[in-house]
């Protein structure tokens, strides 16, 4: 087995070493660290060049802007 490289002297060799010896830790960490800036950059790019954000879905029924008239004639007969 090869000797562990010192990170400050050989960062590329260190990353290559961990990619080969511990890929279960290296690749998820690498992908997650590169996706965060990518998502932020792609979101601003999408808003500027591709399409704008959608209109939000209503969460309540829109009430009319008038006075409510009480209903008559629909009462139960006794």
From TrEMBL:
Domain of life from the UniProt record: Eukaryota
Transmembrane spans: 25-45
InterPro entries: Nuo9.5 (IPR039961)
Keywords: Membrane, Transmembrane, Transmembrane helix
PANTHER family: OXIDOREDUCTASE 9.5 KDA SUBUNIT, PUTATIVE (AFU_ORTHOLOGUE AFUA_5G08980)-RELATED
Protein name listed in UniProt: NADH-ubiquinone oxidoreductase 9.5 kDa subunit
Organism: Lipomyces starkeyi NRRL Y-11557
């Amino acid at each position: 087995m090869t000797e562990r490289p010192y990170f400050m002297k050989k960062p590329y060799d260190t990353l290559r070493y961990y990619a080969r010896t511990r890929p279960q830790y290296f690749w998820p960490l690498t992908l997650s660290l590169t996706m965060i800036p990518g998502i932020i950059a792609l979101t601003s790019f999408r808003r500027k060049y591709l399409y704008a954000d959608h209109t939000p879905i209503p969460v309540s029924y829109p009430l009319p802007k008038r006075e409510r008239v009480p209903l008559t004639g629909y009462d139960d007969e006794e």
